[in-house]
Amino acid sequence: MKKLFIRIFDFFNTIESKIAFYPTLLAFSGFLVALLMIYLEQQGISRKIMDVFPLLMVEDGDTALTVLSACLGGLISLMVFSFSMVMLLLSQASNNYSPRLLPGLISDKRHQLILGIYLATILYNIFTLFSIEPSEDKYTLPGFSVLLGIAFTILCLVAFIYFIHNISQSIQINNILENIFHDAEKRLQKLIKSEENSNRNFPNTENWHEYKAGRSGYFQNISTKNILNICDEEKTKIYITVPKGFFVLKNGIFIKSEKKLDEKVVDAIISNISFARGELVQDNYLLAFKQITEIAVKAMSPGINDPGTAINAIDYLTELLALRMQKRDNGIIVHDEKALLKIAIVSFKEVVYNVMASLRTYCKHDPIMVEKLLWMLKYLERQPTAQENYHTVIKEEMETLLKQAKKAFDSNKDVVSIENIASD
């Protein structure tokens, strides 16, 4: 039962990020409302409302057909324009910033809900048109259904105004960076909190029994409770050799066990791990470092040449790195005071290197950008850490940056400026 629940949860988590999920759901809802209204019209709901509020009802079949047809044509044009705006947003974000941003932008629920409202109203109006006969008199005409169709169309116009406002905000790089930062911040804080009782030692796994994943994909989610229960039942310890968010190869070593496991037990462990074909910041905070770094690097490329955006990206990277310094590198998960499970992680040293290696390559020739990177490293050097070696990593990166920048600068004045910053 637990496995079934996990699979259902993983399936929903996957399809929820698709751009067609909420529009399809709302479109089906519009179809159901249309069927409900057809049933209510057969029960005489319009006739009852006509007796109480006659001014609200359409009294002529030809007028009702004309009004709903106009609403339907306008809504189809509105929906096409809105979809075109979404595609333009995705194309611009991919070209100007990074293709990695697309999954996050596609999964924006506000855009999906607005497009879903359009589809629901279109389907409702179509099926309402089927129930109208031009020759019907005012007491047999589905006037209340027509009134609802007009109200839903007005709602679509309001949603369109909000859509224009929202999409103009979504394409701004400051909002993109802030959304990435907040998603990664939430994920990191959750991981830091989960490490409060994980300060344990884990045995050397070099000679442990090795097992393959049997499938490929990005290591997205894991049910730690179920796997810890398996460890407890089998009296063993387990090591997941691939960090979360990384791509798992079908024939690569994925699991190591202290004791030999049956094939059924290995399958049970794999069934509690979900694999995907894409990445989301909500599941893997490391993707935020990749995305923000790529935005900074692309901003510094000759084709874009936007140092202001690169500086903004470095500001967000500074805050994320400071938060990452509060997380340990062990990846150990404790159950009943015993360290039974360990998941491979990307160490702080690797995170900083991956960020700085890209930024050094594209920013070392620009004195302003080098100064900004030095200020970032100086700030991180003064932050509290979960492990003592983190400050050593920061010092090593600062020395490497200074060495490469001095070689790239043509002016001795720029060299003296960055040396003064590093020595402060």
Characterise this structure.
The structure is a single chain. This protein is α+β, with helices and mostly antiparallel strands. The protein has 16 helices and eight strands. The longest helix has 36 residues, at 61-96. The model has no long low-confidence stretch (mean pLDDT 82).
Features:
424 residues; 2 domains; five-stranded mixed beta sheet; three-stranded antiparallel beta sheet; 64% helix; flat
How are the SSEs placed, and which strands pair?
Blueprint: H1 2-16, H2 21-42, H3 45-52, H4 61-96, H5 102-106, H6 109-130, H7 143-170, H8 173-194, E1 209-212, E2 217-222, H9 224-234, E3 238-240, E4 247-248, E5 253-257, H10 263-271, E6 273-276, H11 286-299, H12 307-324, E7 332-335, E8 338-343, H13 348-363, H14 367-381, H15 389-408, H16 412-423
Parallel strand pairs: 3-8
Antiparallel strand pairs: 1-5, 2-4, 2-6, 3-5, 7-8
Helix pairs in contact: 2-6, 4-6, 4-7, 6-7, 8-11, 8-12, 11-12, 11-13, 12-14, 13-15, 14-15, 14-16, 15-16
Q: Residue ranges: pLDDT <50 for 5 or more in a row?
A: none
| H and E order | HHHHHHHHEEHEEEHEHHEEHHHH
Strand content: 5-15%
How many strand segments?
8
Largest sheet report: 5 strands, mixed
**Structural class, please?**
alpha+beta
Global outline: flat
Q: Walk across the major sheet and give the strand order.
A: 1-5-3-8-7
Q: What number of domains?
A: 2
Task: Tell me the radius of gyration.
Answer: 29 Å
Overall mean pLDDT stands at 82
Tell me the helix content.
Answer: 55-70%
Number of helices: 16
Intertermini distance: 60 Å
